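Below is a typical protein record.
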Amino acid sequence: MNKIFKWLSVFIAALFVSVNSFAQQQQDSMELMRSNGKIYVVVASCFIIVTGLFVYVFLIDRKIGKLEKEN
């Protein structure tokens, strides 16, 4: 049990160190993307994907509703 706790604490510490360094790097890349105008392409792409998923789920729900009414 002590060995598991030791490995778990090492894993959590390594996770916090990597998240901290990633967060610092991400701020610079976000600033770079914002200055180049590429962030708007990313936001538009995410919006299109999410909208497509909602439309797909809506159409599937209508088809399932029609099948339920037939039975």
Notes: The longest helix spans residues 2-36. The CA atoms of residues 59 and 65 lie 10 Å apart. The two ends are 56 Å apart (CA to CA). Residues 37-71 form one domain.
